Amino acid sequence: MWQEAFGRYRMGYASAMAWILLLITLAFTVVQLNLSKRWVHYEGDSR
Q: How many domains does the chain have?
């Protein structure tokens, strides 16, 4: 992204790449948070 934005002066393309990377990271984070509920068991938890 850095090379696209500041090396080749393609700010729009680099911005689009950054948004895609943000969405991918967000999707992985949501999946990870949902799966982590299965990995941890708290005593006294009724689930």
A: 1
